[in-house]
Design a protein that fits this description.
- By secondary structure, the protein is of the alpha+beta class.
- The protein is 35% helix and 22% strand.
- Among the domains are: 14-56, Ubiquitin-like (UB roll), CATH 3.10.20; 64-146, Translation Initiation Factor IF3, CATH 3.30.110.10.
- The chain has 5 helices and 6 strands, in the order αββαβαβαββα.
- The strands form 2 sheets. A 4-stranded mixed sheet has the order 3-4-6-5, covered by helices on one side. Strands 1-2 form a two-stranded antiparallel ribbon.
- The termini are far apart.
Amino acid sequence: MIDENGEQAGVVSTDDALRRARDAGLDLVEVSPNDRPPVCKIMDYGKFKYSQSKLKQKHHEQRLKELRLRPRTDEHDRDIKIEHARKFLEHGDRVQFTMMFKGRERFHQEIGQEAFNYILQVLGELAKVERPPKMEGRRMTMVLVPAKPVTVKKPAAPKAATAATKSAVRSASDARPAATGGLEPPRTAPG
């Protein structure tokens, strides 16, 4: 057994180890169950699991998001696609714009080129070009990546409710009739 200070206490009976852990206000955790005798440690298990979860958290993994356009896509629709791309880039993802050409549209690649230039102009400060516009069969593609490395923001911890708020919630829930399962009946307008 390993005690709460990290020192080896030697071979100890299970009852004695549990009593020592209870006296210290900590948990008895089996660290190595396959050894003979098994190795146990006195520790705060909740704190241990929390530190393990922090080690396992990965950084944001960059994904490729595709946005498809057509040469005849309206300006408003194109602006909506650009806003989607902006959100993806702010989140740290790569964005691939694909311009789909059909029929005679293939002979007017300058329309697609102008659309991609407009996209680059709008997203200029936020993105840089990884792969410039290139025609591949009936598609013209361009890949953008975030200009700056993105730091993933941690969600804010929930604020603890005050004692007055908790008591108000309790008294409000006690006032509801028990027959409705704690729910108030719907109110109807007089009429």
